[in-house]
Each structure stands twice: as C-alpha cells, then as structure tokens.
Specification:
Elements: E1 6-17, E2 20-31, E3 35-40, H1 46-52, E4 61-66, E5 69-70, H2 76-85, E6 86-89, H3 101-112, H4 117-130, H5 146-158, E7 164-168, H6 176-193, E8 196-200, H7 204-210, E9 213-218, E10 221-226, H8 228-232, H9 237-244
Parallel strand pairs: 3-8, 3-9, 6-7, 7-8
Antiparallel strand pairs: 1-2, 1-4, 4-5, 9-10
C-alpha cells in the first residue's frame, strides 16, 4: 500500500478455553483501508481472533490497540462506543426474524444515532442501494434468499458508517455464483467507502478476489502474511497446499 496508517496493532495475544490453547502469542498489524483475509484450518482460532477485535472476546494476555488506543481493558460502555467504529457481519447474518428488513437495518441507527424516523428510512434505503437491493424494506428475513439475507446483514453492518467491518465467513452456505456476488460486493464497498475489511473464510475464490493481504493461522500464530501471489508462490508449502485444496495426506510439509 502506498501510504500505511495503522488501525489495529496486535501484540503477543494469548487465549485459551479450559485446557485448549487457541492463540499462542499472535502478533500482527492491520492498516487503514486494506482488505485483510485470515485463512486457516477448521478450529484453528480464526473466529476467536476476529472477535477479539471488537471486544466480543477478551484475551488472557496481550495487547490490542485500535487507532492507538488499548481496547483489552475497556469497559462494556467503552466497547459500546468502539462498536460504532468496528462493525461485524456475523456468519449466519444474525437478522431478527420478527423484524422487517427496514427494522433490521434501522436497529443500530436507533441504538447509536439521534436520527429522525424519516432520516432513518432514508439511510436504510441508501444502504440497501449500496448492497444492490431495492424495494424489500417491508419483507421479513424468512422471505429472502440466502444471498439476500447476507446483503441485508451487510447493509445493517454499514448503517452507522463504521471505519472497519469484520466479516465472519461471509459466504458460508451460499452457492458459488452467489458467493462470487458477495465477494464482488465486499470488494466494491471496501474500495468505494474506504472501510477496512477484515475477513475470515475458507472460501479460496473469495480470498483471491478481496484480499490485499492474506494471513494464515496455524498453531496459534500467523505462519504467513503476504499477498495472494506470495501465498501461491510456494514459499510456504502449507499455505500453498491449503489454497490448492490438497488432502492432508498429500501435503508437502
């Protein structure tokens, strides 16, 4: 990147659940406006890593700085303010089934803004246009396809104009064509709005389309950080073989 402004600085992060050690001194930086994709095998701690970045999980020890501010010791009220800047798209979308699309997208605006009802409706329509959906404000989640639900959830994540969007497996359960559409949407919105996108996924085509940098989590640490081209070049065989989808017994490691 031409100019790098640090947005997240993570140092020596440790996290265990009971006797299972998940993160073992994880250290990395994320820069403003980039798309940072975290890969790794199932159960390696990708979601755990992501949820540390908005305080949903607190580390056993280590440092996480957001725009220079240590967030590991923030109170729940202070984390509430942080989440105005760091929004999250959950794996299942986490839409409220009893609410319409309009009400779902409006929810964070009611929580975090003083907009009038008309201003909220205008903002909801703008966000729906951004995710390429229209005229569905009155529909309920049960009336939407899987891809539409993801788009509505993304519109809700963007409602309060965050600086960062955390994407937890954004294409899980979607067919390849819909996944490709979501990948295009993530990339175009990230570029258009200048938001920082942090994505965890197993979806290799998505990774290729959206990643400025890729990090591979293994053994509680990133064993590789670099571009797509560096990932496939063969310098790190585990990463290369993961991307190529080799069976474990085929791995050249």
């Amino acid at each position: 990147m031409a100019t790098k402004k640090l947005i997240f600085e993570v140092k020596e992060l440790y996290k265990s659940f009971s006797d299972k050690k998940v993160l073992k001194g994880l250290t990395f930086n994320i820069y403003k406006g980039e798309s940072f994709v975290i890969l790794g095998r199932s159960g390696c701690g990708k979601s755990v890593t992501l949820k540390h970045l908005n305080g949903l999980i607190r580390p056993d020890r280590g440092s996480i700085k957001f725009e220079g501010e240590e967030i590991t010791s923030l109170s729940e009220y202070e984390l509430y303010n942080l989440r105005k800047k760091v929004s999250m798209l959950f794996q299942g979308g986490a839409l409220f089934d009893s609410m319409t699309v309009l009400e779902n997208i409006a929810f964070p605006l009611l929580e975090h803004s003083n907009l009038s009802p008309e201003e909220i409706k205008k903002t909801v329509r703008e966000k729906l246009d951004l995710v390429e959906l229209g005229n569905i404000e009155d529909k309920y989640p049960a009336e939407l396809s899987g891809g539409m639900k993801k788009r509505v959830a993304l519109a809700r994540a963007l409602a309060i104009d965050p600086e960062v969007v955390l994407f937890d497996e954004p294409t899980t359960g979607l067919d390849p064509m819909t996944s490709a559409s979501i990948a295009h949407l993530i990339r175009s919105i990230q570029k258009q709005l200048g938001v920082t996108a942090i994505v965890i996924t197993h979806d290799i085509p998505l990774t290729k389309k959206v990643a400025d940098r890729i990090a591979f989590l293994e053994g509680g640490k990133f064993i590789f950080t670099g571009s797509w081209q560096e990932a496939i070049s063969g310098k790190n065989l585990l990463v290369k073989n993961f991307i190529e989808g080799k069976r474990e017994e085929e791995l050249d490691v």
